[in-house]
Amino acid sequence: MKALILSAGYGTRLRPHTNHTPKALFPIAGQPLIDIIIKRLIRMGASDIIINVHHLHDQITRFVKDANYPVKVVTRYEKKILGTGGAIKNISDFMDDQPFIVINSDILTDIDIKAVYEFHKQHDHPATLVMHDYPVYNNVKVDRNDEIIEFLNLKNNPGTGNCMAFTGIQILDPSVLEFIPDNPFVSSIDVYRKMLKTGLKIKAYTATNHFWRDIGTPESYFEAVYKESTPIAYEKAFGHKSKSPFQRQLLFGDGSDRKWYRIASNTRSMIMADHGINAQNSNQHLTAEVDSFIKIGQHLHEKKIPVPEIYHFETFPGIVYIEDLGDTNLQAVVEKETSDKTVINLYQSVIDQVILMSIQGAQSFQPSWTFQTPSYDKDLILKKECRYFVDAFLNKYLDLNVSFLKLINEFEALAGLALKFAVSGFMHRDLQSRNIMVRDNKIYFIDFQGGRLGPVQYDLASLLTDPYVNLSSDIQNQLLDYSVARLKRKRSIDTNTFKTGYSYCAITRILQSLGAFAHLTKIKNKPFFARFIPIALTNLNTRINKLDSHNFPLLTDIVKNALISLSYFS
Questions:
Q1: How confident is the model at residue 392 (pLDDT cuts 50, 70, 90)?
Q2: Which end of the chain is more exposed for a tag (fewer CB within 10 A), N or C?
């Protein structure tokens, strides 16, 4: 039994990811899709397999050679794509006098191909196409005798009634080759239409109670990975296989483009973070956000920092399964609390863990785990905080038309001072109340993928100046004093120097927050964040005016104008 795997296409629906990785090599549960198909064909009795290739053909050919399969598996390069029919014609020398299998390289399915092959041998028609009911693709008419009578041209308007969808799996007699012309490009569907017109019959094998997924789009690829990976993650998390179906619930996300899901089965649940396909970074060995999430999360967990445990991950599709910490974050707890003393006690417990994270997290931390920059440096402050504030908040949100270059000298001075007085360690870089979960009276840090080496003052400023909870100045000062006292037990620091560094980090952090709130509101259409802009801007104005040793006259004036504009804008 011989087989052809169709794998020459560009994967246009998966661009830009297929610009670097051919669709056939997209992994499912860590295994390239074409490897899954090849091994299934071998298990079902295939003795020789050929793969037509064109786009990024060298990657597929190299993979096949390195795989060392127990049967003959080769590739056939097409200088120009020949189409599905042309591909079949082009490997006519590979075939013998027996029926052969043709299967698309972009489908994940459990359809029993051996059963289809046996079905084909029981009738006299030259072709058997595996069909199923898949409404969005139902455009092939099948009669009561399970014979195909028409292929419709309805890409966006599928047929109804007796129409079914082609699965991309077919068994063909060698006689089909006679109907395929020697043209450079030939569609197999056009060949089948030609055969029908001559009176030949094409048999339909109807698949039921099966799984089938075309991975040709990011959405369908995600679904295929989800189906195969979730049982693996569940077993790793809880030590046994799930005995009931998985229920998936989309959760409300904050500022990132990631999607979060709660996956539940029986009485157990876990969280899945979907970062999106990471094909380009995987190919070029760059550190992407998902890479940082995994590596930093594992590192912090090993250092006994309270972060969710990572159960399972797949970096190429960008999926990570982690411990479910519930739905209660620090913001929600503080909003319900009426006692300042209780709030202070809660924040003190958070600060204790922040200090632990700063010290323990810095030990054996690898800068290569980070994305954007390996540390909190001048370049990051200028681009990701100062410029973000100017471009996203002042100009796009308030429409003030402020020149970043006009402020560059003051921003460079601000960055220099924030770094000059830094007490360095591991920094989370987005340590606000919505990234701190509370479960069973214990706190946990999430969203740590932006972590790097940098000033602990920055994380403390993120925590204490957080617009989501808007702590009073008195509570902020008490907690800052507490932070200094607790840190002194671990490290030798000067109180005044530490607080000076804190004051500058607070400003850079608020600049970043305002840029983020504006971008999320204006560009990402998430109006939830707009309510926190006045709090952050007022806080920025207060802190700039309270600086003791360094003045920023241009920034001070712009912030005052921004307050006026925001008041008018509101």
A1: very high
A2: C
